[in-house]
Structure of GTP:AMP phosphotransferase, mitochondrial:
Amino acid sequence: MKTANRLISLAKPARMLLIGAPGAGKGTQTERILNKFAGIGALSSGDILRRNISQKTQIGVQAESIIKSGKLVDDELIASVVKSELESKSWLNQKNSWILDGFPRTEGQAVLLHETLGPLNADLNMVIHLKVPEDIILERIENRYVHIPSGRVYNLTFNPPKVSGRDDITGEPLSKRPDDIPAVFKQRLDSFRDVTEPLLEFYDKRGVLKVVSGISSDIIYPQLEKLIAESFCQN
Ligand code: G5P
Ligand code: MG
């Protein structure tokens, strides 16, 4: 239930990154955080790319076959797409609070983001690894449906839409992601292990890494909420 008047306010700006394997629940947890804390925005690199694909933009054309194969799009491309989004939302400053879901996911991307945020003294101040066992997430993907314009995500057993095949808010049709098939999902997991897991150390060395773990989003979410409340809601 969305109870706007009960949202918790932050006392300090939060610039967060969620890192997790495909299907770990980055989108799911982002939505829960936004429903609990006031004044936080969110941006998912995968959602931006899927919107570009559905709108057939030049970026969408470049990204479509790469996403379908489960590989990662080029660091420079995704970094510039995310930078433009941050600019257009006026989030490139020390005041705004936001969550990045899925970007950076390589060390090269982390360096590019730092080149943008560092000079503003607005680097990421919390990077959270959502740690979920692989056998658990494999089961989730088969049942996932998404609302591409908003990025809202459903699962036929865990959080089914109120009306079958329709987004709860807009009533628009839901889609299957073309990269949610087992062979492609395996490639996405490999990319995560090969290039994204090493990024954890990068952020650990910078003193901003936190880890939350569990076999379900219901187990992980309270850990996330506590971390955010303790880190950003007290002066
Ligand atoms: P994305 O879109 O960033 P992934 O692979 O990183 O894709 P994904 O698949 O979106 O991550 P998620 O957001 O971590 O997973 O998970 P989710 O959608 O919230 O949850 C997964 C499913 O499980 C949902 O159906 C949800 O309802 C359900 N669920 C959640 N919790 C539970 C639970 O506790 N129990 C159960 N039973 N179900 C649950 O990137 C896609 C592609 O875009 C490109 C790449 O090609 C990438 O493969 N891309 C980038 N390329 C380069 N650099 C970047 N930074 C890029 N970003 C995107
Ligand atoms: Mg996602």
Summary: DSSP finds eight helices and seven strands in the chain. The pocket of magnesium ion (ligand 2) is lined by residues 26-27, 44, 46 (CB under 6 Å). The longest strand covers residues 15-20.
